[in-house]
Design goal:
- By secondary structure, this protein is α/β, with parallel strands linked by helices.
- The protein folds into 3 domains: 3-93, MurE/MurF, N-terminal domain (Udp-n-acetylmuramoylalanyl-d-glutamate--2,6- Diaminopimelate Ligase, Chain: A, domain 1, 3-Layer(aba) Sandwich), CATH 3.40.1390.10; 106-318, UDP-N-acetylmuramoyl-L-alanine:D-glutamate ligase, CATH 3.40.1190.10; 328-472, Protein-Tyrosine Phosphatase, Chain A, CATH 3.90.190.20.
- It is built from 16 helices and 22 strands.
- The chain has helices spanning 6-12, 57-62, 91-105, 119-130, 148-154, 174-182, 197-200, 203-211, 230-237, 290-305, 310-318, 347-359, 380-390, 406-419, 437-445, 465-472; strands spanning 3-5, 16-17, 26-28, 30-31, 42-43, 67-71, 85-88, 109-114, 136-138, 162-166, 186-189, 222-226, 246-250, 260-265, 270-274, 283-285, 328-331, 337-341, 366-371, 398-402, 431-434, 453-457.
- The strands form 5 sheets. It has a 6-stranded parallel beta sheet, sandwiched between helices.
- The two termini are 44 Å apart.
- Mean pLDDT is 92; it is low at 421-427.
């Protein structure tokens, strides 16, 4: 983590140390949480909609913080005059400037990852395949925004070789800010989906926002993007990048620089051959789904760029440990197979989950349990209905929905099941819509057989993991 004198910190974040006598005082690490202060840290009092971190600065200092930032539009209270205080125009901007300056001082290579879906899984894969050769740090949890990314950078030890940074956004300019701090050597765009349509208006807008990651690339960097996405193919052509920046694609379509052959998928793993590379045949991932093979291709491409040997890439996939609630397998109270994919949802991700269920065989009944997809804007009803249109009896045997918007999914899916000659018209379990989560859980528990499969997915605000946990309990 960052270790600097307060004089250096003030210069790096564009602030002024109120008393010069503290210029040689050192700090070790940065925190924004006064409740979790470690001795010697710099406290950064951020301001939110219903809180002001300045109110807790005195507590942070009393609990061991070495110094605090202080926004200049607020008078410094008498209680803080005995402590080191750095005055800044804006504490959030100061945090971001500090992280950007620290990154520039580090001898570290940065992999930045953005995309509508798959960011976290790709991050985990990258870190796993790189860690056998390098000292690697990665974004923890979902700390991928304008606060989380700077804090992640400031956590870096100066001995770290590579940091893998996830970059999230909800509007234009946010990825540009993050990539400007991180200055990636490799920038990855996993895909363009439908998330944040409410803020960005269209998939074209989403593509423009994701392509902002290229603006921070180092002059000899690599832009690695999903070549199966026409919007990215078109958008990359409009970018003004340094001549030395290389562009590579990954995907399943012909013409991609990185692609997979001989794909095989079961309930808990995926196997594929890396096209054109005899040293990476029968690569096995301990995670299922064709979309995860796409994520793995991005990880392989980045690892090869950084000089990781093929056998270490293979071992990295063998030892992969993923962040939770991304098609996370578990077992129901009666032995049925569960998949917890409840971290988030948008139409592209939900269709990928449906495709995954379709690929699996050997189950008595395959259940989809879907919750509302949030932040989709004026087209939210049509987009939910579109998911229902996509669900046919050859992809899943039954659909249960939770939430008002998902009723449109259930309504459209009911028509698909009624049209199918193979559908059982008398089976009440084919499509059901619920507004009460507990009712859905109890309804499913009494009908779930040990030979069944259940996949649960929905937006973060729907907390669909509650359903998984209830089904796990005996």
């Amino acid at each position: 983590m960052i270790k600097r004198t307060l004089g250096a910190i003030a210069e790096m974040c564009g602030g002024t140390l109120i008393e010069d006598r503290f210029a040689e005082t050192g700090i070790t690490g940065v925190t924004r949480d006064s409740r979790d202060v470690q001795p010697g840290q710099l406290y950064v009092p951020l301001i939110g909609y219903n809180f002001d971190g300045h109110d807790f600065a005195a507590s942070a200092l009393e609990n061991g913080a070495a110094a605090t930032l202080w926004q200049s539009d607020r008078p410094v209270p008498e209680a803080l005059t005995a402590f080191p205080v750095i005055s800044v125009q804006d504490t959030l901007t100061a945090l971001q400037l500090l992280a950007a300056a620290y990154r520039q001082e580090l001898n570290v290579r940065v992999v930045g990852i953005t995309g509508s879906n798959g960011k976290t899984t790709t991050k985990d894969m990258m870190a796993s395949v790189l860690s056998g050769v390098f000292r690697v740090h990665k974004t923890e949890g979902n700390l991928n925004n304008h606060i989380g990314l700077p804090l992640t950078v400031l956590q870096l030890d100066e001995t770290i070789d590579i940091v893998v940074l996830e970059m999230g956004m909800s509007g234009f300019g946010e990825i540009e800010l993050l990539t400007g701090i991180a200055k990636p050597d490799i920038a990855v765009i996993t895909n363009i989906g439908d998330a944040h349509l409410l803020q960005l208006g269209s998939r074209e807008g989403i593509a423009r926002a994701k392509l902002e990651i290229a603006s921070g690339l180092r002059s000899d960097g690599l832009l690695l993007y999903n070549g199966d996405e026409p919007l990215l193919q078109a958008g990359v052509k409009t970018l003004e990048l340094p001549e030395a920046v290389e562009k590579q694609t990954f995907g399943t379509a012909e013409g991609n620089d990185w692609s997979a052959n001989n794909i095989s998928i079961d309930a808990t793993s995926s196997t594929f051959d890396l096209a054109g590379d005899d040293s990476l045949q029968k690569l096995k991932l301990p995670i299922a789904g064709r979309h995860n093979i796409m994520n793995a291709l991005a990880a392989v491409a980045a690892a090869k760029r950084l000089g990781v040997p093929s056998e270490q890439i293979r071992r990295g996939f063998d030892g992969l440990r993923l962040t939770g609630m991304r098609i996370e397998p578990s077992t129901a109270y009666n032995g049925a197979r569960l998949f917890n994919d409840a971290w988030n949802a948008n139409p592209t991700a939900v269709r990928a989950a449906i495709d995954f269920v379709q690929q699996l065989s050997g189950y008595r009944r395959k259940w989809l349990v879907l919750g509302d997809m949030l932040e989709l804007g004026p087209q939210e009803e049509q987009l939910h209905a579109g998911i229902g249109d996509y669900i046919t009896p050859d992809k899943a045997d039954a659909l249960l929905t939770f939430g008002e918007l998902s009723r449109h999914t259930a309504s459209a899916a009911s028509k698909q099941f009624q049209r199918s000659e193979s559908a059982d018209q008398t089976d009440e379990a084919a499509v059901m819509a619920f507004d009460d989560k507990e009712q859905l859980i109890e309804w499913l528990r009494v009908r779930l057989a040990p030979e069944d499969l259940v996949l649960v997915k929905g937006s973060r605000g729907m907390r669909m993991e509650d359903i998984v946990h209830a089904l796990e309990r005996v």
